[in-house]
Amino acid sequence: MSVASPSRATRSRRWCLAGLLCSGLLPAVAAGPAPVPDPTAWLARLNAAASGQNYRGTMVYTAAGIVSSSRVAHVAAGGEVLERVEALDGHQHRVYRRNDTVRTVWPHKQLVVVEQRAASNALVSTRRSVEPRALAHYSLVPAGHSVVAGRRAQVMLLQPRDDLRFAQRLLADEATGLLLRADVLDSAGQTLESSAFSEVQIGGAADMRAVLDGMEPAGYTVLPSRREVVDWAAQGWRMRQDVPGFDLVGCLQRPAVAGPGGQALQAMFSDGLSFVSLFIEPYSEHAHRGALAAQMGATHTVMQRVGDHWITAMGDVPRRTLERFVDALSRR
């Protein structure tokens, strides 16, 4: 899942659990009409469990036929929140969060990258929450019960109120409220991508030492991140027209996305559930080709030239939403 959280980043900062429970959602079992919970209260319980519960397990993420898994641990104790996410596929790396400080350990490079959470849009986080303001753009609908990782779960659908966002199916642990699985659905109800625990332990003593083990390996080079938080209003860009529901949630100066070297501006927007990132960098005829669009799972990408700049828009939203962002972007 992540937060969480923008950029390729977005995919990770976006619902930041990672995983699918093997094939598909187990058929929901509903014995008669499901009681309708108060949407605000239901989300509050979900969010409280994500931040306040101790849990550990394995999560699997699937999109466009690609499956990856991570081992995760989350501890909340003594006023601190600790997280550890260890990739089990591809380049081995571990991501640690201690409150607002994030450290990414790359064993094959003997490198540790340190940054503050506000700038770590690529963080794959175990924390998954839905802001209450999302209810202005999604309706919360009961959809029965199921089982995830051996635990009984309540199934809820977040149905979009317009065509600018995708529906999401949330499966939360009945006993604790912890989100166990999330599916992003297209307009026909087909799953675009899914993330879930394949096995999970909830509760138990807070073992802070175990979560932080390996965070500061001896002999590794420690570097600060190349991402820096900046003020969007001072960067000379604006949105001529807001995209309904999406508010600016952050702005970074970071390495260029499409061009070799150089810097890019990344503006991040969210409706409380979904995320969109706009990457803005100087146009280069050598580095940038014609306009293009791509999709992987629920993540769409639109790239095109706007004046003397190259714009890359990415997010877990329909392509039309990204096109509205690009069309509304202008220099002051």
From TrEMBL:
GO terms for molecular function: antisigma factor binding. The keyword Signal applies. It is found in: Periplasm. Keywords: Periplasm, Signal. Pfam families: MucB_RseB, MucB_RseB_C. Residues 1-30 form the signal peptide. Residues 39-210 form the MucB/RseB N-terminal domain. Residues 234-329 form the MucB/RseB C-terminal domain. InterPro entries: MucB/RseB_C, MucB/RseB_C_sf, MucB/RseB_N, MucB_RseB. One of its GO terms (biological process) is regulation of polysaccharide biosynthetic process. GO terms for cellular component: outer membrane-bounded periplasmic space. Belongs to the RseB family. This is Transcriptional regulator.
